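Entry for the shared binder. Reason: the reviewer on the internal report wants the predicted structure included alongside the sequence.
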Amino acid sequence: MRVRLVLAAAALLTAAVAPLAHAGGADGHHTADRPTGSHLRDGHLRDVHFTDSHFTDGHFTDGLFVDAYGTVADDSTVTLSGTYRCLDDSAGPVFVSSTLVQGDRSTGIGGTRAVCDGHLHTWTNSSVVKDPAYRPGAARVEATLMQLSGTGLPLPRFLATEKADVELR
């Protein structure tokens, strides 16, 4: 079991580091094509998705949301996005990873390094997926806010997860 966790952490870390150039920057800031319900104000993203359920004793907890749509470009580049908040990355780096499921196909779509400062941020993950390529239409996204921590080989700690039906355009 421990070997599986280590292999999963290594795979997630590899998937998270490579696409940072396509992920709107290593800091996770990306505001283009935001859906209604979220907006940028005073340099920080405000999102109506964060509700009282994300409060613990009057303080926000870690949270993660997936936008209602993703894109498939002509070159088979899939782009997914959403919003997150994390509070503390002192134990190790935090990443937003995403998996796209359409029909019987499931593929990891990049990873974004998270900024854990208690503010809302956007995440955008992109990957070129061919053979067979994803098509516009209904799909499902499974996103995870994960922290790598520990000495030696880092182990994953899952801070938040979100499963959402999306429309690929």
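Summary line for the report: Residues 2-17 form the longest helix (16 residues).
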